[in-house]
Amino acid sequence: xxxxxxxxxxxxxxxxxxxxxxxxxxxxxxxxxxxxxxxxxxxxxxxxxxxxxxxxxxxxxxxxxxxxxxxxxxxxxxxxxxxxxxxxxxxxxxxxxxxxxxxxxxxxxxxxxxxxxxxxxxxxxxxxxxxxxxxxxxxxxxxxxxxxxxxxxxxxxxxxxxxxxxxxxxxxxxxxxxxxxxxxxxxxxxxxxxxxxxxxxxxxxxxxxxxxxxxxxxxxxxxxxxxxxxxxxxxxxxxxxxxxxxxx
Length: 248
Ligand code: IPE
Ligand code: IPE
Ligand code: MG
Known about the structure:
Layout: H1 3-6, H2 10-13, E1 22-26, H3 30-36, H4 41-62, E2 66-73, H5 81-104, E3 107-112, H6 120-132, E4 139-147, H7 149-165, H8 176-183, E5 193-196, E6 215-218, H9 228-240
Helix pairs in contact: 3-4, 4-5, 5-6
The structure holds 3-methylbut-3-enyl trihydrogen diphosphate (2 copies) and magnesium ion.
């Protein structure tokens, strides 16, 4: 069901002409959601994947061009091996199950993060999803998986240093635009808004360079409870913000 069939008043909850071009979400609180129900943590992650399905569909229905979601951080490797394995399996499952629907909805999948440490099965599922949705142009679902912001900044610095070393780049040509281009493998605009669920007030190494002027919105709702109405409310809150970018 389309968002406007599900929530007929959606158009009065948000200004459809002033939506962000890039929404970024830190999907947090799956574990606590499960704990509150005396369920294993993995059940929280499973419920979270269902919300991801809904929020991706809503993003595409709203015509928002880019959605970046934080699904697995470079630091999440430090969790118990069972949970890490479960999250890897869940990603493969998600990509397999959603692919047809994403193609139908015009959603293109791209990935942000390192391939290092990922199993062949995970990399293959990512490549398949990327390739099968490459021609879609309505909405980009940019999945940050095995992503660390500081790591990607260091990587970009190294890339530029190599070019300078090879005499292919004048160090004086390095400015914030070139740096951003080097960093941004998927050539996406900076996020207009970052939403973090679960009541944590930090970025946890998520897009530290790209969020310099993003609006930050924190909600206490755990990710598995973050439904379309929560999403619309959050977008409405974004629309009330006065973005000055240092000007008046
Ligand atoms: C977010 O939920 C998903 C991932 C980090 C993979 P958490 O697993 O961090 O849930 P909490 O924060 O423990 O509740
Ligand atoms: C950030 O959440 C990563 C994802 C949502 C994928 P975490 O739960 O890992 O962050 P911390 O540990 O609370 O900072
Ligand atoms: Mg967490």
